[in-house]
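Design a sequence for this backbone.
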């Protein structure tokens, strides 16, 4: 440990290394682009290390880093005008189409419902962990999750109705 390196900074660096894949998956679940996800994680790592001295409770460092990744991803998405999905050529076209369809559907949700649904169903976070990452009351997370799911169900029903009319 260098003379200037703090306990918090060392902890943040260790978490960034040991949980890189987790942070990448969180970033990817927002942007659906491997290169953008790597950029988000890099930018988030820079911010986390730079501001590690502001970390009040070291035991929540992982949650704090996740929040930085989410905020960085949201900022990047809001700054981009056109989203272009890269197809995974190792899986059949139909599966790519289904993944893009579901991602577009979830992307239609407003924040924080989008984050909650993505963290719960794409990243398998527990509701308590989502509550910590997003700094929300657990009951608020639950109500926003169920509201988001109702919106997705309604959107799916509307899309099915439109497709059946076109057949």
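Sequence:
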């Amino acid at each position: 440990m260098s003379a200037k390196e703090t306990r918090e900074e060392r902890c943040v660096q260790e978490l960034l290394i040991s949980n890189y894949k987790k942070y990448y998956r969180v970033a990817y679940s927002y942007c659906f682009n491997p290169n953008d996800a790597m950029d988000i994680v890099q930018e988030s790592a820079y911010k986390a290390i730079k501001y590690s001295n502001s970390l009040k409770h070291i035991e929540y460092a992982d949650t704090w880093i996740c929040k930085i990744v989410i905020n960085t991803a949201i900022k990047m998405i809001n700054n981009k005008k056109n989203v272009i999905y890269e197809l995974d050529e190792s899986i059949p076209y139909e599966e790519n189409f289904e993944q893009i369809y579901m991602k577009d559907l979830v992307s239609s949700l407003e924040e924080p419902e989008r984050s909650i649904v993505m963290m719960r169903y794409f990243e398998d976070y527990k509701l308590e962990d989502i509550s910590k990452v997003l700094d929300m009351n657990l009951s608020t997370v639950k109500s926003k999750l169920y509201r988001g799911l109702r919106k997705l169900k309604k959107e799916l029903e509307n899309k099915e109705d439109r497709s059946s009319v076109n057949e």
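DSSP finds eight helices and no strands in the chain.
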